[in-house]
Amino acid sequence: MSNPQHLRYSKEHEWLSNAEDGVSTVGITEYAASALGDVVYAQLPEVGSTVTAGETCGELESTKSVSDLYAPVTGEITETNEDVVNDPSLVNSAPFEGGWLFKVRVSEEPDDLLSADEYTEFSGN
Amino acid sequence: MSDTPQTSSPTTSQSAAQSAATGRSATAPRRTALDALHRSLGATMTDFAGWDMPLRYGSERDEHNAVRTRAGLFDLSHMGEFTVTGRAAPSFLDSALVGNIGSIAVGRARYTMICAEDGGILDDLIVYRTAESEYMIVANASNAQTVLDALNERTGDFDAEVRDDREAYALLAIQGPESSGVLASVTDADLDGLKYYAGLPGTVAGVSALIARTGYTGEDGFELFVAPGDAEPLWRALTEAGAEAGLVPCGLACRDTLRLEAGMPLYGHELTAGLTPFDAGLGRVVKFDKPGNGGRFVGREALAEAAERAAGNPPRKLVGLIAEGRRVPRAGYPVVAKGEVIGEVTSGAPSPTLGKPIAMAYVDTAYAEPGTAGVGVDIRGSHEPYEVVALPFYKRQK
């Protein structure tokens, strides 16, 4: 598996796109999706709510476990991926594309986000 | 992203292979004879009862569906095998276990339990009668030592010997509607004559095996006990023979969802040392009228009382629950009604076959009738509605 170069990554295994008009897209990495196993339920933050970098903002449930979803940045949720709510398996089949989770209008970024290469080294994948 | 405490977390381990929802052992995990092969297939491995076992090879949902519709191949070498021999083997097992073991015909198997003096379940077992004075007992990996110790303790003056054969066997299971056809293509054994819960020695793909028509999936299937050195060639032969039928390697994740749909209990979840077989709705496995030993067996008195309680008004019953929503109940979650806790989930998972989350749970008898309204599960603080149903969730069309 390879981690797209144009994204940045959190140590909680989320990816973050570069902001367009101040809005970034967030999802979980292929490594995280594969560690979770088949995702069966996604609880995403509400549009309009504010999330805080490093704090939980939802959960992903797989056959075997429940995982908290962390916000990689602070900001306001502008959109959530209804396709994933209806078909959570998208998180497994296309974690970096159709399996994106939410969009956030970034007000603050933490300073410990990783580059693709750094994340690859961090996760060992 | 991080897991809740009930699971180990991918964020704290070096590899996804260590991310799984089973217990961990303090010592280095044991590896089965098929370990290298699992790794070469890219399996996600997990620690299970001190063994490093394949959790899944790809998608556990796909593996589950393969067993329901085609065929799946499992490594179950972590299970514990004990051989009991001697003239008094039948009466010894009659006294050590709760079932009528002396009445099992040679070549047949039976589901039974071993209980403590207080009636608590030490393990559930499959017992195969392989000869007039020889039985093979298969115990759960997590209880194997407990079972061996109890058997040795109960041998007493019986002319019977218990042999620890855990190292002597690897165990492969081929399960699913296509399994008999796939197996038939690599053996001359009379599979048509092999009924459900029967076992016979034979040769499969050139390998000596005890071929048993048993399983833990709710499908037709076979379990093959072989020498560890023969496990890999047999696995490869079955993989090849099953390619056309769509056989896939299957891990423990789908084994759990398959047995849950089939309403089969799992030790440590539906069965514990704190419960008798009657509490678990499995009183039928206890035989008070067996002829061996004048009907005496370990736990008899306590179990007779448990039988009476169960016939009267048992406090709780094991039921099935089907979600109306999409959130998955997990073992230990409270079952609720009218804001009160009325039971506890023992196993829960998304059911690939039903397309909804399902669970087994012990609930107060007042709420145990199928169709009882107003029952829910407390899922991390929110009460989600669930339908009470009779077990099993899934029964195959014979």
TrEMBL record, chain A:
Sequence similarity: Belongs to the GcvH family.
GO cellular component: cytosol; glycine cleavage complex
Pfam families: GCV_H (PF01597)
Lineage, top ranks: Bacteria, Bacillati, Actinomycetota, Actinomycetes, Kitasatosporales
Keyword list, A-Z: Lipoyl
Main function: The glycine cleavage system catalyzes the degradation of glycine. The H protein shuttles the methylamine group of glycine from the P protein to the T protein.
Residues recorded with modification N6-lipoyllysine: 64
Keyword Signal among record annotations: no
Alphabetized CDD domains for the sequence: GCS_H
Location of the Lipoyl-binding domain: 23-105
Cofactor(s) listed in the protein's UniProt record: (R)-lipoate
Subunit organization: The glycine cleavage system is composed of four proteins: P, T, L and H.
HAMAP family per UniProt: GcvH
Identification of the protein by name: Glycine cleavage system H protein
Superkingdom of this protein's organism: Bacteria
Cofactor binding: number and manner: Binds 1 lipoyl cofactor covalently.
InterPro entries membership: 2-oxoA_DH_lipoyl-BS, Biotin_lipoyl, GCV_H, GCV_H/Fam206, GCV_H_sub, Single_hybrid_motif
Transmembrane in keyword set: no
SUPFAM superfamilies: Single hybrid motif
Single biological process term from Gene Ontology: glycine decarboxylation via glycine cleavage system
Species name: Streptomyces tsukubensis
TrEMBL record, chain B:
Binding site for substrate: 223
One BP annotation, GO: glycine decarboxylation via glycine cleavage system
Source domain of life: Bacteria
GCVT N-terminal domain sequence ranges: 36-290
Domain (Aminomethyltransferase C-terminal): residue spans on this chain: 316-395
Entry's Gene Ontology molecular function annotations: aminomethyltransferase activity; transaminase activity
Entry EC no(s): 2.1.2.10
Gene Ontology CC annotations of this record: cytosol; glycine cleavage complex
Pfam families: GCV_T, GCV_T_C
Ranges where the record places region Disordered: 1-29
UniProt biased composition (Low complexity): 1-28
SUPFAM superfamilies (alphabetical): Aminomethyltransferase beta-barrel domain, Folate-binding domain
Assigned keywords, A-Z: Aminotransferase, Transferase
Catalysed reactions listed for this entry: N(6)-[(R)-S(8)-aminomethyldihydrolipoyl]-L-lysyl-[protein] + (6S)-5,6,7,8-tetrahydrofolate = N(6)-[(R)-dihydrolipoyl]-L-lysyl-[protein] + (6R)-5,10-methylene-5,6,7,8-tetrahydrofolate + NH4(+)
Assembly, per entry: The glycine cleavage system is composed of four proteins: P, T, L and H.
Function, in words: The glycine cleavage system catalyzes the degradation of glycine.
Family of this protein: Belongs to the GcvT family.
Name of the protein in its database record: Aminomethyltransferase
Organism from which the protein derives: Streptomyces tsukubensis
